[in-house]
Amino acid sequence: MARRDFSAARLPGFATIAITVFVALYAPILMLVAYSFNAGDSIAIWEGFSLKWYPVAWNNAEVREVTLRSLTIAATASVLSTTVATMAALGTTRRRQTRGQTFIYLLINQPLMVPEIVTAVALLIFFASIKVATGYQGLGYLIAAHTAFCIPFAYLPIRARLEGMDLTLEIAAGDLYASSWQTFRHVTLPLLAPGIGAGMMLAFVTSLDDVVITLFVKSAGQDTLPTYMLAQIRRSVSAEVNAISTLLLLLTVLLLTAFFLLTRKRD
Amino acid sequence: MRDVAIEAVSLRKVYGTDQHAVVALDDVSISIRKGEFFTLLGPSGCGKTTLLKMIAGFETPSEGNILLNGHDITEQPPNRRPVNTVFQSYALFPHLTVRQNVGFGLSMLGRPAAEIDEVVNRALGLVKLEAMADRKPQQLSGGQQQRVALARALAPSPEVLLLDEPLSALDLKLRKEMQTELKRLQLELGITFIFVTHDQEEALTMSDRIAVMSSGNLLQVGTPKEIYNHPVNRFVADFIGETNFIPAQVAGTTATIGGDIALPVDPASPQGSHTLAVRPEHIRIVPSGAEATLRALITESVYFGTDSHVRLRLANDIELVARFQSDEAGGDAPPVDTEVGLIFAPGALQVLED
C-alpha cells in the first residue's frame, strides 16, 4: 500500500498545537497539585515540600461536614438518576420507533443543552415557592436538583449499551419460559450492568463538582465541598484548598478510570 | 387426531396497513405429526420463518389459529408454550456459562436444582459437551456454540423443537456432521422437529416430510421422494434439484415439443400449453444405433468423477442436460459432437403447470 491515508498527525504544526493544548489543560492542575505540598501557606511562592496541609484539611470540622454532605448528595442523586435513566433508556430503545422519539430524546437530554444558570434560577424560584408552602428546608431540594441534571449523564452510557445488545437474547429468554420480569432480571439487567455502573459513576462525579445549581438551590448551612471551597478562596487563598482539590481530583480520576474500564470491556 | 403435534389453521400474516400491506403468510394450513422431522423449505421471504415464529409465539397471526396437541395456543405467550427454539444466531446468553445456559429454561420453570443439574448433564452428554460446561459461550467455536444452543432448547423436553436455519453459519464439513447429529437426536428423543431451511439438499436428506413454500403460500407437502419425483408445479421442480424445462403442447397422452417431436406422457396430465419437466438423471444416453425415444447431438460434456454432465441438442434445437453415470470400467460419456439416442425412464416426463 503505497498511498498513505490522510492523518491530521502529519499536518505541519500539529505537534506544536498538541503540546500547547496539553500544557494549557494540565499545567494549572499540575501546579495546583504541586502547591498542595507547599510548606508555606501561599499558593504562589514555593517554600519547600510538606504534607502538612492534608492533616490540616482532614482535621477541619467544616471540611469534613461539607465533604460528607457532598458525598451524601452525590450518592443519593446518582442512584436516583441512574434508576430513572435506566428506565428511560429501556423505554426509548425497547419500543418500536415512534414519531415522538426525537422529542423524548431531547427532553431527557435537556439539562445538557439549557444553560446551567437558567436551570439554577428556575429551580431557585420553583423551590422557593415549595419551601414557603411546605416549610421543608432539608437536603431534598439539592438532591432533587442534582438528580435532574445527572440524568442525561447516566442515560448516555446505558442507552449505548442497550443499543449494542442483541434483542434475540430477550426473545430466547422468553422462549425458555422466562416471564418479562425474569427476562429483565436474568438477561437484560446483567448485560446492562456495565452501562448502569458507568452511568452511575458519571452521575456521581457530575453531582460532586456542581457549583452553579448548588449555589442557587442550597439553603443556609447547606454548603457542599465545591461551594465551601469557593467561599474559602474568596476570603483568603490557602494551600488547604489545594490539598482538598488534589484529593477530589484523585477520587475523580479513580472513578473515571473505573468508568473507562467498565465501558471498554465488552463481552 | 391424537398423532398431530402442531396444526396450523388458515394462518395469515399481514404486515403494515392498506396500500403498504405486505402479506407474509397467505392462508396456510398445515398438520405436523408427533415425532416427525418436518422441514419448511423455501427461498428467503417465502414466509417459512414467519410461520416458525408464530409456532414459537414470537409473532401473532393476523388470522387463523395454531393448535398444539389439539389445544389452541394462538393467544399464549412464548413462555407458556412447551416449544423451544434453536436460533439462527444461537442467541446464547454471554454472561452465563454453558451449564447455566442449558439450565436456563428449567430454572425459569422453577425446577429444583438437583433436577436441573441432572438434566443439564444429560443434555450436555447428548451433544458431547460435558468438558465445556463451565466455559462462557464466547470461548467456544461456532460448532460448539451450535451444540449448546441445541442442548439448551432440548433440556426442558419441549413438545416441539423449532430450528431456524441453525446450520447456516457453519462450514460445509461441520454442517454435514451436524445434519447427521440432528437426525440422530431426533430419532433418539422422538421429539417433533420443525426445521427451517432454504437449502434443498439439507431438506431432502434430513426430513420425514417437507413443506415447500413460496411468497407466503404453501405449494406442496410431502416426503422428500414425493417432492423430488412428483413436484406439483414448475417452482417446486425448479427449487429442488436440477430439471430440464421444455415448453410443450399436451393433447391426450402426447406432449409435443418444438412443434414436431411427440413424447408419451401420463394420461392424467393437464391438457394444453404447459411445461414438460425431466430430471437430468432420468435421461439415459444410448449409442445412436440402439432403439431410443429421441436422437440428440452431444454439444458439451463435463466430467465430475462419479458422472458427467452432458448437454444435448435435439433435432429442433431444443437443449437438454443429462447425467452420464461413469461405470466401473471407467467408461466415460461419448465425446462432443457424437450422435446419440435418448431413453426416458418411466414417469420421467412430467407435465407441470406454471
From TrEMBL, chain A:
<dbReference type="GO" id="GO:0005886">
    <property type="term" value="C:plasma membrane"/>
</dbReference>
<dbReference type="InterPro" id="IPR035906">
    <property type="entry name" value="MetI-like_sf"/>
</dbReference>
<dbReference type="GO" id="GO:0055085">
    <property type="term" value="P:transmembrane transport"/>
</dbReference>
<comment type="function">
    <text>Required for the activity of the bacterial periplasmic transport system of putrescine and spermidine.</text>
</comment>
<comment type="similarity">
    <text>Belongs to the binding-protein-dependent transport system permease family. CysTW subfamily.</text>
</comment>
<dbReference type="InterPro" id="IPR051789">
    <property type="entry name" value="Bact_Polyamine_Transport"/>
</dbReference>
<feature type="domain" description="ABC transmembrane type-1">
    <location>
        <begin position="67"/>
        <end position="260"/>
    </location>
</feature>
<feature type="transmembrane region" description="Helical">
    <location>
        <begin position="187"/>
        <end position="208"/>
    </location>
</feature>
<feature type="transmembrane region" description="Helical">
    <location>
        <begin position="71"/>
        <end position="91"/>
    </location>
</feature>
<feature type="transmembrane region" description="Helical">
    <location>
        <begin position="12"/>
        <end position="37"/>
    </location>
</feature>
<dbReference type="InterPro" id="IPR000515">
    <property type="entry name" value="MetI-like"/>
</dbReference>
<keyword id="KW-0813">Transport</keyword>
<keyword id="KW-0472">Membrane</keyword>
<keyword id="KW-1003">Cell membrane</keyword>
<dbReference type="Pfam" id="PF00528">
    <property type="entry name" value="BPD_transp_1"/>
</dbReference>
<feature type="transmembrane region" description="Helical">
    <location>
        <begin position="243"/>
        <end position="262"/>
    </location>
</feature>
<keyword id="KW-0812">Transmembrane</keyword>
<feature type="transmembrane region" description="Helical">
    <location>
        <begin position="103"/>
        <end position="127"/>
    </location>
</feature>
<feature type="transmembrane region" description="Helical">
    <location>
        <begin position="139"/>
        <end position="158"/>
    </location>
</feature>
<keyword id="KW-0997">Cell inner membrane</keyword>
<protein>
    <recommendedName>
        <fullName>Spermidine/putrescine transport system permease protein PotC</fullName>
    </recommendedName>
</protein>
<keyword id="KW-1133">Transmembrane helix</keyword>
From TrEMBL, chain B:
<dbReference type="Pfam" id="PF00005">
    <property type="entry name" value="ABC_tran"/>
</dbReference>
<dbReference type="InterPro" id="IPR005893">
    <property type="entry name" value="PotA-like"/>
</dbReference>
<dbReference type="Pfam" id="PF08402">
    <property type="entry name" value="TOBE_2"/>
</dbReference>
<comment type="subunit">
    <text>The complex is composed of two ATP-binding proteins (PotA), two transmembrane proteins (PotB and PotC) and a solute-binding protein (PotD).</text>
</comment>
<dbReference type="GO" id="GO:0005524">
    <property type="term" value="F:ATP binding"/>
</dbReference>
<dbReference type="InterPro" id="IPR027417">
    <property type="entry name" value="P-loop_NTPase"/>
</dbReference>
<comment type="similarity">
    <text>Belongs to the ABC transporter superfamily. Spermidine/putrescine importer (TC 3.A.1.11.1) family.</text>
</comment>
<dbReference type="GO" id="GO:0043190">
    <property type="term" value="C:ATP-binding cassette (ABC) transporter complex"/>
</dbReference>
<keyword id="KW-0813">Transport</keyword>
<dbReference type="InterPro" id="IPR050093">
    <property type="entry name" value="ABC_SmlMolc_Importer"/>
</dbReference>
<keyword id="KW-1003">Cell membrane</keyword>
<dbReference type="GO" id="GO:0016887">
    <property type="term" value="F:ATP hydrolysis activity"/>
</dbReference>
<protein>
    <recommendedName>
        <fullName>Spermidine/putrescine import ATP-binding protein PotA</fullName>
        <ecNumber>7.6.2.11</ecNumber>
    </recommendedName>
</protein>
<dbReference type="GO" id="GO:0015594">
    <property type="term" value="F:ABC-type putrescine transporter activity"/>
</dbReference>
<dbReference type="InterPro" id="IPR017879">
    <property type="entry name" value="PotA_ATP-bd"/>
</dbReference>
<dbReference type="InterPro" id="IPR008995">
    <property type="entry name" value="Mo/tungstate-bd_C_term_dom"/>
</dbReference>
<dbReference type="InterPro" id="IPR013611">
    <property type="entry name" value="Transp-assoc_OB_typ2"/>
</dbReference>
<feature type="domain" description="ABC transporter">
    <location>
        <begin position="9"/>
        <end position="240"/>
    </location>
</feature>
<dbReference type="InterPro" id="IPR003439">
    <property type="entry name" value="ABC_transporter-like_ATP-bd"/>
</dbReference>
<dbReference type="InterPro" id="IPR017871">
    <property type="entry name" value="ABC_transporter-like_CS"/>
</dbReference>
<comment type="function">
    <text>Part of the ABC transporter complex PotABCD involved in spermidine/putrescine import. Responsible for energy coupling to the transport system.</text>
</comment>
<keyword id="KW-0472">Membrane</keyword>
